[in-house]
Amino acid sequence: MKVVAIFSGGMDSSTMLYQLLSKGHEVKAIGFDYGQRHAVELDAAKAIATKAGVAYETVDLRSLGPVIAGQSSQVNPDIEVPDGHYTEESMKATVVPNRNMIMLSVAVAHAISIDFDAIAYGAHAGDHTIYPDCRTEFVDAMKTVIGLCDWKRVQLLTPFVDVSKSEIAKIGLELKVPFEMTWSCYKGGATHCGTCGTCVERREAFELAGFTDPTSYLR
């Protein structure tokens, strides 16, 4: 199959990218610049795609930033990124309204325009509590919508929607994903902070998987 992969340069999307390649699919990776605080992830995405020999393109959605900023710490510079675990209520401040639907819509349009068969994104089981657009119900609804949006049928692939982050770490290590190149931190510094929700989840994933975390953290 020919697949357009929504690619952030994080652990999940990088493992998904390598898994798609391992299955023999032709992959085009696209990242999204929507004015996120952690835009450094786009540099990681480009570097990893290059290493994997995959075509990569950044889609410029920065004009959306002011429109969707609201109460999201990821696009509103006046709101601090909360520290803690993803299961905590405070993590809802990291939600970017309707982000995945926007990205999926662009990815579908791109797949149709270049005559690709499918799109893929790396939602995983650990996202369900905080991010409504990572739930299986959302995925099922999007599959229906994507099937109706054009005469060309495009599949939606979500290989990790029921998979834990630690399992993703195990799969990635088996596929030799360069995790040291991936980016997770939401605070957007030069080094992973080690305390925001996604850093905590990253650390936990490697620990539960029984592997050494290759990431450098500030604390």
Describe this structure as you would to a colleague.
The protein is α/β, with parallel strands linked by helices and 219 residues long. It has 7 helices and 5 strands. The chain has helices at 11-22, 40-52, 65-68, 99-113, 136-148, 165-174, 197-209, and strands at residues 2-6, 26-33, 55-60, 118-120, 155-157. The protein has a 5-stranded parallel β-sheet, with helices on both faces. Helix 6 (165-174) crosses helix 7 (197-209). The longest helix has 15 residues, at 99-113. It starts with a strand and ends in a 10-residue tail after the last helix. The mean pLDDT is 93.
Radius of gyration: 16 Å
The shape, in one word, is globular
Proportion in helices: 25-40%
- Unreliably modeled segments: none
> Number of helix segments?
7
Task: State the strand order across the main sheet.
Answer: 3-2-1-4-5
Main sheet attributes: strand count, strand direction, barrel closure: 5 strands, parallel
Whole-number mean pLDDT? 93
Number of strands: 5
In terms of structural class, how would the helical and strand content be classed? alpha/beta
Tell me the β content: 5-15%
Distance between the termini: 42 Å
Order of helices and strands: EHEHEHHEHEHH
